[in-house]
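Saturday, quiet lab. Running sequence design on the structure tokens for the scaffold JK sent over.
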């Protein structure tokens, strides 16, 4: 056995690239440094005693027990427990950086407090904490437990710290990485008020709230204040908490949340799709997690997540690879956030693979919008200060309407001094607005609000090559000024809180609207109107008027030009009215005859419920009366539907006739490609 005396200083230089092995190591009072290039293997026990100092930047492999009664302060190195039998951690306080457990017989704490700055990795076997593992947190790092493979586990209590850095005293969304704790765990970390057991129970301000999605009104009215300091902290629940003064460190103690965890989400149809379904949840794991990692189950959940940034008084959002106000896919441990359910049966669960070692700021890429050209608009005071931003993303999978996979709502702190900016879809404000690659959206309102009068700027940045065919101009309706969003970098303006809202319009490619496909009666005419306000018109038949009178069926297109020289087009199918084909729509009586989907692309279904059993003839005619399909089909009275292949039909309008024992039934059918 080798023993280092108190006079020995062992330093292995970074350049040596050495491997150092021995049976046992007992450091009795020496200062020992293991540099980054060194791998030291201890085939027996490791002991550090008699005021010894052990500092590890490299790798220390221990195959038997770890006993520290002096100073073990692992700098940035790795300690691997990989013995052939179970291993013990004992002694006083030890501080690790990386720990790896690779021992199928397990590693367990028997005495002492063992602190972790960075990551506990379970390669094989389990780790028993003896309720004495502390995951440290400071302004640089927060200790974490990496993805736990099947067959391994972390047992016993842990203490999870969460450092909140220097900033404003204000609202945070927080959660816990451990189970079984109460609000008392936070009550000794920051001042609580307004409920029994809090620091100041008589104060008329409850500073810890949960959110109840099922409350029958808009999002901001679902907050419920804490009822007692003994309230349990729910797994995956977000807590809207007024915290300060910062910096400070939160902590919670209990068994770590591991493996599958369900976050409490619901959808209640109270008001409308915009306001219903908001849920305030939290990262349940003692680790950062990523919204983009596999391991989530997201059923009837929008793909956007939202964080509150108390220092800047704005909400950050992230969806499909694009963030605003610093939002991203990584969710810090103990961090709460908002998600939105969009239908009944909403489910949001996490499993171990969602964990990530990517660090993130506490307040808050995958394929998708991260690959799309982006236009980012940020508003801030001209002399600097708090800011806010919104993003337009150009992605052909987007519809231009609301897309749960690509769009993100705009959330606002009404009490924040920060300015506000959002694009408007119908009446809904968005922080991320995904449009088709060529944005034929006409005019998109841009809502800008400020809390105090003054000079402001909209800063314009672009990512990727926005298609040359895109028309993107910003119009200030108050000043009648135009800014080219594809080339300019900023727009300065003076604004008061009383200026018209929305004050700005983003002009994209013009959007003429010829209306839905229509019919023309034989010998008659139909008037097509591209809409007023365009500089020029050009129809497929050569006409240059706003309106076009047509007398023959066909496909008609119009191209228009707006005041910026940008082009847009629309198309309409004009078919021959069925009243001129000799085919009439026969009343169906009490039988619920119908076809769906309609319009159809590949296949459609005919509802046959209620028909008598027998042989029926299915016939399909063009709008001009030409028979293009006929098939005999035996229908049983208990049969609910029949399936028809429409792939052989060209795009256009048809008349479907079903004739048999129950009578003749006719429906119009539209084929759209």
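Result came back. Writing it out in full:
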């Amino acid at each position: 056995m080798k023993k280092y005396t108190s006079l020995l200083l062992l330093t292995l230089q970074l350049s040596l690239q050495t491997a150092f092995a021995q049976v046992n190591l007992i450091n009795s009072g020496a200062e020992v440094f293991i540099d980054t290039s060194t791998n030291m293997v201890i085939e027996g026990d490791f002991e550090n005693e008699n005021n010894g100092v052990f500092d590890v930047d490299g790798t220390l492999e221990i195959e038997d027990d770890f006993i520290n009664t002096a100073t073990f302060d692992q700098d940035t190195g790795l300690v691997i427990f990989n013995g052939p039998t179970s291993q013990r951690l004992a002694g006083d306080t030890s501080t690790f950086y990386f720990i790896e457990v690779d021992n199928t017989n397990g590693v367990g704490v028997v005495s002492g407090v063992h602190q972790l700055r960075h990551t506990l990795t379970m390669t094989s076997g389990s780790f028993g904490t003896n309720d004495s593992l502390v995951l440290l947190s400071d302004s640089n790092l927060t200790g974490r437990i990496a993805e736990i493979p099947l067959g391994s586990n972390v047992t016993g209590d842990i203490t999870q710290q969460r450092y909140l850095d220097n900033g404003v005293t204000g609202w945070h969304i927080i959660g816990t990485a451990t189970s079984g704790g109460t609000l008392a765990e936070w009550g000794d970390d920051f001042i609580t008020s307004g409920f029994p057991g809090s620091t100041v129970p008589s104060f008329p301000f409850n500073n810890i709230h949960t959110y109840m999605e099922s409350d029958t009104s808009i999002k901001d009215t679902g907050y419920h204040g804490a009822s007692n300091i003994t309230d349990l902290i729910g797994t995956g629940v977000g807590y809207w908490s007024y915290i300060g003064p910062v910096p400070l460190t939160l902590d919670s103690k209990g068994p770590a949340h591991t493996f599958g965890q369900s976050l409490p989400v619901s959808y209640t149809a109270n008001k409308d799709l915009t306001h219903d379904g908001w849920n305030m949840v939290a990262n349940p794991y003692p680790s950062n997690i990523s919204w983009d990692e596999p391991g989530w189950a997201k059923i009837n959940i929008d793909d956007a997540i939202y964080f509150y940034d108390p220092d800047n008084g704005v909400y950050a959002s992230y969806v499909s690879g694009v963030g605003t106000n610093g939002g991203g896919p990584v969710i810090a441990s103990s961090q709460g956030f908002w998600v939105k359910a969009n239908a009944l049966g909403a489910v949001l669960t996490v499993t171990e693979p969602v964990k990530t070692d990517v660090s993130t700021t506490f307040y808050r890429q995958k394929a998708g919008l991260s690959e799309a050209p982006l236009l980012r608009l940020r508003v801030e005071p001209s002399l600097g200060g708090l800011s806010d931003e919104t993003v337009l993303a150009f992605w052909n999978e987007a519809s231009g309407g609301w897309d749960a996979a690509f769009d993100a709502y705009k959330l606002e702190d009404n009490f924040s001094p920060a300015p506000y900016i959002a694009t408007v879809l119908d009446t809904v404000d968005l922080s991320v607005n995904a449009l088709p690659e060529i944005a034929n959206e006409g005019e998109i309102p841009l809502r800008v609000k400020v809390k105090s009068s003054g000079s402001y700027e909209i800063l314009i940045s672009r990512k990727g090559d926005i298609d040359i065919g895109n028309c993107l101009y910003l119009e200030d309706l108050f000043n009648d000024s135009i800014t080219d969003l594809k080339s300019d970098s900023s727009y300065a303006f003076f604004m008061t809180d009383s200026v018209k809202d929305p004050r700005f319009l983003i002009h994209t490619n013009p959007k003429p609207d010829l209306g839905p496909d229509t019919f023309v009666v034989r010998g008659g005419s139909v008037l097509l109107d591209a809409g007023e306000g365009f500089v020029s018109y050009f129809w497929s038949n050569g006409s240059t008027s706003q309106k076009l009178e047509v007398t023959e069926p066909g496909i008609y297109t119009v191209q228009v030009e707006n005041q910026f020289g940008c082009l847009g087009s629309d198309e309409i199918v004009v078919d021959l009215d069925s009243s001129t084909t000799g085919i009439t729509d026969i009343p169906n009586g009490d039988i619920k005859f119908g076809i769906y989907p309609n319009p159809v692309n590949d296949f459609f279904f005919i509802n046959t419920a209620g028909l008598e059993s027998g042989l029926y003839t299915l016939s399909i005619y063009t709008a001009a009366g030409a028979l293009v399909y006929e098939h005999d089909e035996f229908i049983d009275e208990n049969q609910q539907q029949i399936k028809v292949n429409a792939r052989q039909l060209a795009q256009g309008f048809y008349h479907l006739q079903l004739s048999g024992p129950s009578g003749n039934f006719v429906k119009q059918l539209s084929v759209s490609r």
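Notes for JK: The mean pLDDT is 88. The CA atoms of residues 289 and 338 lie 15 Å apart. Ask whether to fix the surface positions before the next round.
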